[in-house]
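Practice problem: predict the structure.
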Amino acid sequence: MRERDLVGREGLFVAEGEVVLRVLARSPLAVAQSLLLAEKRVDALWDLIEDLPDETPVYAASQAVMDQIVGFPIHRGILALGRRRAEPSANELLSVLPDDALVLVLCGISNHDNMGGLFRNAAAFGADALLLDQTCCDPLYRKAIRVSVGATLIKPFARLNEQEDPLGLLTAHGFEALALSPRGAVDLADAMRARRTAVMLGSEGPGLPEAVLKRAKAVRIPMADGFDSLNVAVTAGVVLHHLAFVARRGL
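Answer:
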């Protein structure tokens, strides 16, 4: 079964590795449907297995059998089939956030490594939620989950539908939008955080649409001569750190 088909089947996804499995076991947003473990891994995970609901099946197999099932040598020997709980709409998600909220809005993020890194940064620096446009890749793809160290399983997110205007929606919920661009008029060091702040990030290369940059506060990260941009996940880390620890005066 192709992994991209899983999400279409009741929001199923594959999680791998002990760290991710332990995050899944305590996730409020997803549940483990079943586990497949190499026999040598069972003892180390016994505390987790005992805490699972009684109806959750746990299968143990030799390493050779696991490799045959997966189709390649899977050295971690730890797999879970998970299911995401009902996903809220973007409007519903924004409606339940606290008065002092920080949100990432992602546009055109198609690389699973970048998606995982963005969620990891969101978790590390206390972002409350993420909004994804229709062109973003799936945060519950196995590689995205692994790169995020399980953050895609605990950070609330929602997808914008094609008809929704992200800036209009953010404004309606009292958010100030900061749009990251090398052409931004405001240096990040001078950007202060509003009580409700949304950080908008586009794909590497094209970046955010011009229409977004004209309507939001465009912010730039100054760089050395001859260089104009960072990887999008690195950018998010720099910006979120600034907003979490530097730009909070008056909040």
